[in-house]
Design brief:
Belongs to the FAD-binding monooxygenase family. GO terms for molecular function: oxidoreductase activity, acting on paired donors, with incorporation or reduction of molecular oxygen, NAD(P)H as one donor, and incorporation of one atom of oxygen. Its cofactor is FAD. InterPro entries: FAD-binding_Monooxygenases, FAD/NAD-bd_sf. The protein has 540 residues and is of the alpha/beta class. The protein has two domains: 290 residues, FAD/NAD(P)-binding domain; 121 residues, FAD/NAD(P)-binding domain (3-Layer(bba) Sandwich), CATH 3.50.50. It has 15 helices and 20 strands. The strands form five sheets. Strands 1, 2, 3, 4, 5, 6, 17 and 18 form an eight-stranded mixed β-sheet that branches. The protein has a five-stranded parallel β-sheet with strand order 7-16-8-9-12, covered by helices on one side. A three-stranded antiparallel β-sheet has the order 13-14-15, with no helix packed on it. α1 runs parallel beside α13 and α13 packs parallel to α15. The longest helix has 21 residues. The N terminus is likely disordered. The structure holds flavin-adenine dinucleotide and 3-acetylpyridine adenine dinucleotide. The site of flavin-adenine dinucleotide has 36 residues, from α1, α2 and α13.
Length: 540
């Protein structure tokens, strides 16, 4: 290629990539295509990331599968057919494996290997990466593809070690599956994972007790098998669809209707919401009006519509009452389900409100709350993740002068990045779907491809320009971080205690860490930065 010094020893690479999910694998592909040596380290024993770990019953994507896939290869787009509107976890995992085979990616991935630390050596301009195997490798570029939702959170319940039954976290599900037949199962958590798992487990278990702390909004997914004709049309028009995805708000080729909820009469609103409810899917309700996530009064109207649906669906009024969410709709991850509220009409399902009577401890035989004891054979923790900074902080990442990322970001309360891609003091480190990028508030496939392509173009540019070091400027990152917060503060997102705010982890600093300006706007900003010679970064 150019004058760039290539690394070719077995332990020295141009780039080390952490994680072999969708982002790490595509990063590897692009680095190879552009002529760089790379090694991927993955804690699991195979590819897939999220879809490798989250094998709980009912797990599936909630972005339509035709949009939740790689778009970089025309050949791949032609070869793969999704069976349903929302693909289930096994099918998504098969897809990732298919991609890994097709592009022969596994030969550069070291599995069963956790990256423990990464330290930047200023004199050598190399990152030294320490692995849990005891090995050390070095690389000019350190690229994290660790995922935003890969650090499972099992809350520190007193007495869990005494529990005599089986317990599992949804994000760390046994590969051999779990047998619920004849068992009294308890599930803690009613977020996206809990709401997907509950209807499926209820069909198998002898009895299912749901421990709910915060009732959630959820609307029907209305999943259906994909019609081959529909897929044919999609394939024919994919370049237009891809362009729309890339320039949209969320990475899904749909836009909100440009109308306020107050521009319609109550009857018309009801009709619009009802149509969206019947249609199902992730954005139909949210996109019904343009002010639902901005003004409390608008939000209250859609929230009440969903509460009315819950009252309508759940037969026992006292159970329905406990299931009614009261926070701003859409400020926790929007959820779509298959028969979630209907499941509470089953005789073998009971609901326990643990906000009213919190869990005191896990005993040898079950869960003890402040007012009762529940005998269980199995506990499922659908308790989420230490999101965004969690997987990054699990690695001891140290930049210039030995400063750790955790120290720099004050444990997460003071996250500072430039474009969510880099951070000052950490030269030649890139974060894929890092904090302060659109990441988890987008169709992540679009965000992943955009980041990977931006990073590989940047590395190629550096190589062509004979530049060895790239580092975010402090003023550029301050401007970016403030901009992210300003946008978030104009919405209702920051008014709710959610994992987006770090509120789900005991002792975690609070702060909203996602860029909300939309993936299209974000792409334009990143492209302009690159076109102007990576303005806001120092290149030497
Ligand atoms: P991940 O898939 O999380 O992969 C990261 C990998 O890095 C993991 O395999 C992990 O083992 C590895 N790793 C982390 N730290 C280390 C370390 N120190 N050393 C070695 N390896 C390490 N997004 C959507 O857009 N649409 C959806 O419908 C959707 N559904 C989801 C459903 C579930 C159940 C979950 C949990 C998330 C979902 N997401 C969804 C978000 C999903 O995480 C992303 O879409 C995407 O799969 C992320 O890919 P990734 O490669 O960036 O990260
Ligand atoms: O995790 P969550 P998740 N005692 O944090 C409860 C993606 N995803 O795994 O709300 C009692 O949302 C907690 O209660 P509360 C998606 O981005 C996508 O479900 O904090 N309860 C909550 O009910 C999603 O947002 C899909 O009061 C406790 C639940 O556990 C993200 O992953 C599917 C508790 C955790 O919900 C995380 O979803 C699955 C305690 N000590 C996941 N601690 C798709 O379909 C926590 N809880 C796309």
């Amino acid at each position: 290629m150019s004058s760039f010094q290539k690394s070719n020893s077995l332990t020295d690479f141009d780039a080390v990539v952490v994680g072999a999910g969708f982002s790490g694998l595509y990063m590897l592909y692009r680095l190879r295509e552009t002529g760089f040596t790379a090694r991927v380290f993955e804690a699991g024993d195979n590819v897939g990331g999220t879809w490798y770990w989250n094998r709980y019953p009912g797990a599936r994507c909630d972005v339509e599968s035709i949009y939740y896939n790689y778009t970089f290869s025309e050949e791949l787009l032609k070869e793969w057919s999704w069976s349903a509107k929302y693909a289930e976890q096994p099918e998504i995992l098969s897809y990732i494996n298919y991609v890994a085979d097709k592009f022969d990616l596994r030969r550069d991935v070291q599995f069963n290997t956790r990256v423990q630390s990464a330290q930047y050596n200023e004199k050598k301009n190399r990152w030294t990466v320490q692995l849990n195997s005891g090995e050390k490798v070095s690389a000019q570029y350190f690229i994290t593809a660790v995922g935003c939702l890969s650090a499972s959170n099992v809350p520190k319940f007193k007495g869990l070690e005494n529990f005599k039954g089986e317990w599992h976290h949804t994000g760390h599900w046994p590969h051999e599956g779990v047998d619920f037949q004849g068992k009294r199962v308890g599930i803690i958590g009613t977020g996206s994972s809990g709401i997907q798992a509950i209807p499926v487990i209820a069909k198998e278990a002898k009895h299912l007790t749901v421990f709910q702390r915060t009732p959630q909004y959820s609307s029907p997914a209305r999943n259906t098998p994909n019609d081959p004709e529909h897929l044919k049309n999609i394939r024919k028009n994919y370049s237009d669809i891809r362009a729309k995805m890339r320039h949209s708000i969320t990475g899904i080729p749909e836009e909100p209707r440009n109308i306020s909820v107050f521009d319609d009469s109550p009857e018309e609103r009801q009709r619009v919401f009802e149509e969206a409810w019947q249609k199902g899917g992730l954005l139909n309700l949210t996109y019904s009006y343009n002010d639902l996530s901005i003004t409390p009064e608008a939000n209250a109207i859609v929230a009440e519509f969903i509460r009315s649906k819950i009252r309508e669906t759940v037969i026992k009024p006292e159970v329905a009452e406990k299931l009614l969410p009261r926070f701003y709709y859409g400020t926790k991850r929007t959820i779509i389900d298959t028969d979630y509220f209907e499941t509470y009409n089953r005789d073998n399902v009971s609901l326990v409100d643990v906000k009213e009577a919190p869990i005191q401890e896990i005993t040898a035989t079950g869960v003890k709350t402040e007012d009762a004891e529940y005998e269980l054979d199995m506990i499922v923790f659908a308790t989420g993740f230490d999101a965004m900074t969690g997987p990054l902080f699990k690695i001891d990442i140290r930049g210039k002068d030995g400063v750790s990322l955790k120290e720099k970001w004050a444990g997460g309360s003071h996250t500072r990045t430039y474009l969510g891609l880099g951070t000052a003091g950490f030269p030649n480190m890139f974060m894929l779907t890092g904090p302060e990028s659109p990441s988890v508030l987008s169709n992540m496939m679009v965000s992943i491809e955009q980041h990977v392509e931006w990073v590989s173009d940047c590395i190629s540019y550096m190589c062509d320009q004979n530049q060895a070091v790239i580092e975010a400027k402090e003023d550029a990152e301050n401007t970016w971080s403030n901009h992210c917060r300003e946008i978030a503060d104009q919405t209702l997102f920051t008014k709710t205690n959610s994992w987006y705010m770090g509120a789900n982890i005991e002792g975690k600093a609070r702060g909203f860490q996602i860029y909300l300006g939309g993936v299209g706007t974000y792409r334009t900003i990143c492209d302009e930065v690159a076109e102007k010679g990576y303005v806001g970064f120092i290149l030497t």
